[in-house]
What does this fold into?
Amino acid sequence: MEKTVNQKAWFLVLPVFLIVAFSAVLPLMTVVNYSVQDTFGNNQFFWNGVGWFKELLDPHTDLGERFLASIGRNLLFSAIILAIEVPLGIVVALSMPRHGWQVAACLVILALPLLIPFNVVGTIWQIFGRPDIGLLGYVLNRIGFNYNYVSNDLDAWFTVIVMDVWHWTSLVALLCYAGLKSIPDAYYQAAQIDGASRWAVFKAIQLPKMNRVLLIAVLLRFMDSFMIYTEPFVVTGGGPGNSTTFVSIELVKIALGQFDLGKAAALSLVYNIIILIVCWVFYTVMTNAGAERPTQKEGVA
Amino acid sequence: MARIDLVDLAHSYSGNDAPPESFALKPVTMTWRQGGAYALLGPSGCGKTTLLNLISGIVTPSRGKILFDGTDITQASTQKRNIAQVFQFPVIYDTMTVGENLAFPLKNRGVPPAEIAVRVKQIADLLDLTPYLNRKATRLTADAKQKISLGRGLVRSDVAAVLFDEPLTVIDPELKWQLRSKLKALHRELDLTMIYVTHDQTEALTFADTVVVMHDGRVVQSGTPAELFDKPAHTFVGYFIGSPGMNIVPAVVGAREARIDGHTIALKRTYSGLPAGAKIEIGVRPEFVDIAAPLPGLLSARLERIDDLGRIRFARVRVGDAKFAARVPPGFSPQGDVAGLVFDPAHVHVYADSLLVEGAA
It folds into this structure.
């Protein structure tokens, strides 16, 4: 059949072009524009080439040092919360009930932290951890720990990590629970008949069947923790010193605090590229996860 | 390997206090000898899977006892019972190779590795899985996966019994034949007690020495395929086994004769003292009723159609309101739509309230 040419179709696509242009493309181009220029105010700009990028990636300059240090902190933070939240989420999902009204109760309770706005979560923990009026801070100090997240680096990290675990473990648990629920009963019965121990059931059935949702959980939690801003900003403001200043906090400081538009633009572009690369890696891993690969391993049998 | 005794075994999913009629399995007492091949046959929802799960210990019975070699194991866990079971859909462990899958039940029971290797090799040979032993089990076809499941069921030589829960459902018809005969051969070779649940009569009759027919939670007959065919103990067995099923029609039965639709058929045996008020029916397999030209002295029937099954033809006819199937003798072509029916008296059975009545000689 011959396709009829109808130029009116453009009117249906045009709004999307406009919206994307105004909301994403133009701002991005502005950022690119800023990243290659310098300004002394008065709306006067000077060409700076890749100067900001050079400075950003050179640890001997002030900008580079701050950027790389905050990247390091961010990666450490992501690694720690993944190492805690993923196993913990699996354990929570495994110990959840399978039938009856308890299921609904558990799901609601688990979903609660996910529904709280980020700055409220920050405020809750900011007050909860205060040594003078916060329950956590007060109790810790009374039983002999000299806990103060405003003055001690380790205490600040501890608070930020516990807060993230409290806020987001539910997400991992819910995803894992969904994965567990999709395993047919026959698998458990077969394992019972094959005489498998609890650990063998977990290793041979539950973990492999959860593998997909776990990848999604790891991806989501990595992305979220890598761009974390609100909660640590509310609790510690990036301090004490710079100890909990993550990349996004650093970026806001440079862009809005110092109003160094060129440096901030360069930083945000690099930040963006890192996130794109990580996305691509995860996407590739996930889409290839189920594919058959030739195994070199010798069979046990 | 064990003899299995079921003593007054019954089960209800809604607890012991449920009304007896609602039990998924109504009380049954029977003995299965060691090394036998048994089939549980019945339509969906007749309680055969419940019975199987009771034996394997996945379900604990509401009433009654299960004995393995005389030992009461009613409350024992599945692991302790030493049972193997193959499920309707293939269950394989995704991360393991085919060989590791087969070795899994042995490994869990602490069998020495050398022994595991020998046993896995033997089972893989029997099931033609040897070329796949080192491959991951995930990417195999459904029937290869089901073979792995079968293999895991058969790999332990010391099991009390191997239970099959409609294991060939997912298999293509052609492979079904192969696997079925393979199972039969394995049964001879391995000398295991096997219990096979199915709703497919061909599967049950070809696999088992003894077929246990179940209907509505009850065991209605247990016997060899020939017994089920020649002498169904319950109208359900007659109807369910055989294709087409047995003709069962209401009749008035006298001493040595039955009257259907005003016509008298001779019987081989004497039936006297039939329970009063019971629903009396006669049953005769289509194979033992021949269709003939309408002659006086023959029960006359209205011909509806003829099914040509290739080797044999069956006529579908109506006698009064009752539907009937009858054999069309080779070379016979019916004239018009009226025909006579010729009965083989030796194969006409009498049923009172659906149960077979044994006549006196």
Remarks:
- Chain A has one domain: 46-287.
- DSSP finds twelve helices and two strands in chain A.
- Strands of chain A lie at 37-39, 45-47.
- The first strand of chain A starts at residue 37 and ends at 39.
